[in-house]
Design goal:
Blueprint (H helix, E strand, L loop, with lengths): L7 E4 L19 E4 L7 E4 L4 E11 L4 E6 L2 H7 L1 E3 L4 E3 L6 E8 L5 E4 L3 E9 L39
Antiparallel strand pairs: 1-4, 2-10, 3-9, 4-8, 5-7, 5-10, 6-8
Amino acid sequence: MTQHLDLSCLRLPHGSDLALPEHATLGSAGLDLRAALGDDEILTLNPGDRKLIGTGLCIALPEGYEAQIRPRSGLAYKNGITVLNAPGTIDSDYRGEIKVLLINLGQEAFEVTRNMRIAQMVIASYTHITWDEKQSSASFQSLRGARGFGSTGTDKLKKPSKTS
């Protein structure tokens, strides 16, 4: 079942006429963020360029939630445009404008214009932790152990079959 959260927001003057981010379908986790550039402004991202782009939107996340800023798959696939620090995190105590750090990993220049959907935002809950430091590795034993990169799905880590 999908959770619902009422989220306070403020549209800044340079984004006042842009649509609020919305879920495109009932199953969409992300909300599209739009570029709040000037009416006739065109921001060119040449290959390798990175630019911080305002959305004209501020949000007031409640404690226990973050907003994750992620690439839009179509921009990434078709043009090599992605969010440089993906996923970027908007903390619950940040109240400034949401900005998106885009980078062009493609081979051609890419133009960003006003109202263009440039990224998506996913609201997620998080957990604060308290460290319980141990003095020995005895409590860290598992079938996988310290085997890392490329180790999952290998024969040594497969679950025993019910017939064995």
